[in-house]
Amino acid sequence: MLLVQVKPDQTAAFEEMIAKLKSTLASATDPAVKQQASVKVYKSSEPGAGGNAFYVVLYDPATPGTEYYWLEVINKALTPEQQADPATREMYKRFAGAIATMNILNLTTVGGGM
After folding, report:
1. Is residue 20 part of a domain?
2. pTM of the full predicted structure?
């Protein structure tokens, strides 16, 4: 689970990145990448610290040893030409610039999975 705070004026860029991530995962041929397609993203009605938008990103099931860095996952789906395109670099800057903070929570089931 990831707890992500997004700058209030950058929610469109973050949600664009999530849409790009989901389309990348849906069309992935790499089995390690394909396993991440279980991602679910929730936006809180309550703001985070400093008025940031608050999102919860849930991978269920999570795959041990898998890298969940979104820009790297998206990058794996691009051709070398797309990767070198200046527009792609600008897209990455916009996506990365949207995130104020991110915390990773590795959760363990307690109480018999209830």
Report:
1. yes
2. 0.80
Q: The domain that contains 85 carries what CATH number? A: 3.30.70
- Burial environment of residue 6 by CB neighbours within 10 A (0 to 12, 13 to 18, 19 or more): buried
- Paired tokens of 14: 């973050």
Beta carbons of 54 and 46 less than 8 angstroms apart? yes
The answer to whether residue 111 sits within a structural domain is: no
Instruction: Specify if 112 maps to a domain.
Output: no
Residue-number span of the structural domain to which 70 is assigned: 2-104
- Predicted confidence (pLDDT) per residue in 16-53, tens digit: 989 988 888 888 787 777 777 778 999 999 988 889 99
The total number of structural domains in the chain stands at 1
HEC readout, 35-99: HHHHEEEEECCCCCHHHCEEEEEEECCCCCCCCCCHHHHHHHCCCHHHHHCHHHHHHHHHHHHHE
Q: Which two tokens stand for residue 85?
A: 């395109």
